[in-house]
Automatic annotation (TrEMBL):
InterPro entries reported for this sequence: DNA_brk_join_enz, Integrase-like_cat_sf, Integrase_catalytic, Integrase_recombinase_N, Integrase_SAM-like_N, Tyrosine_recombinase_XerCD
Family assignment from sequence similarity: Belongs to the 'phage' integrase family.
Entries under Pfam families matching the protein: Phage_int_SAM_3, Phage_integrase
Nuclease as UniProt keyword: no
Function: Site-specific tyrosine recombinase, which acts by catalyzing the cutting and rejoining of the recombining DNA molecules.
Gene Ontology molecular-function annotations: DNA binding
Limits of the Tyr recombinase domain: 112-307
Keywords: DNA integration, DNA recombination, DNA-binding
Protein name (Swiss-Prot/TrEMBL): Tyr recombinase domain-containing protein
Protein's UniProt keywords contain Transmembrane: no
One BP annotation, GO: DNA integration
Organism: Clostridium fessum
Amino acid sequence: MKNETMYFNDLLSIWLEKQKQARALSTYVKYRHLADRYISPYFRSIQLSKVDLPMLQTFRNSLLSPDSLHPLGNGTIRCILLLVNSILRLSYETGQTNGILYLPPRLPKKRPEVPVFTLQEQKQLEHYLTAHTGISEAVIYLGLYTGLRVGELCALRWENIHFSDRYLHVRHTVQRLTRLDTTHKSELILSGPKSISSNRLVPLPAFLLPILQPYSHPEHPDYFLLSQSANSPMDPRTFQNHYQRILSQAGLRYLNFHAIRHTFATRCITNGMDPKTLSEILGHSDLKVTLEYYFHSSLEFKKEQIDRLTALSPAVHTSLPDMPHNMTD
């Protein structure tokens, strides 16, 4: 039933409660953060009946404003717009509005620049990891050849690694999330993986097995790889600190840990792995994400591809005829 005095933020609270019941905790926390920071302040004290397309367009423009001290990425803006559209759809479904208002979430394409390690840098890192043994070094090696996310690596238990069959099973992830109480403190949460497709089997290269096995606990298969206990996984931030220290000691520039995942994807494609297989290994639900965000073609690889094309030309095998003197460009 239509409520003439209902405010937009009243409906936002109802919508958030529905998401809390239907979504994973990490997803709900993300939605709550975006709602509290960007949606609720803008629509404060605005009745639903006053919301119209010009107002929504002004809101959209405010997110895109280049004057902002901390400009938002396209992915964040797109997510906020999708949330607002979902709230507007709920207002129609509950009879609060007579029609569905809609904010186009499509934005100008802006491919994120995510640096990857060059082949020489990767070799240098692997040389260091081989020369300096430790569980952190072994897990970084594991990341280089599986592309697992840092939270997935921190959530790995020894029972998830099947040495005899040469694969691992990604079943959980670890994240540090902000509490939803008044303290706003964060806590470490062990939960299911990011999506259904993220729950996956990942093959292991044979050379990694003897690198990992010395640290395994056959008598305690429920122990986490990194914390060596059954109860508390390592905080991803702690592991990233170890990773940063290792890069420094290896004499390498700092790239955040997600660059390891991008480096893995790039090596897979440049060495001939088909994108569909790579997409499944990475745990993507959409092949387009794999190709658009996780494949970084180096100049060396582009030259190699051009050389393959050049080899098809008859000019490579026969001398070119003399060009007419009167030929112009």
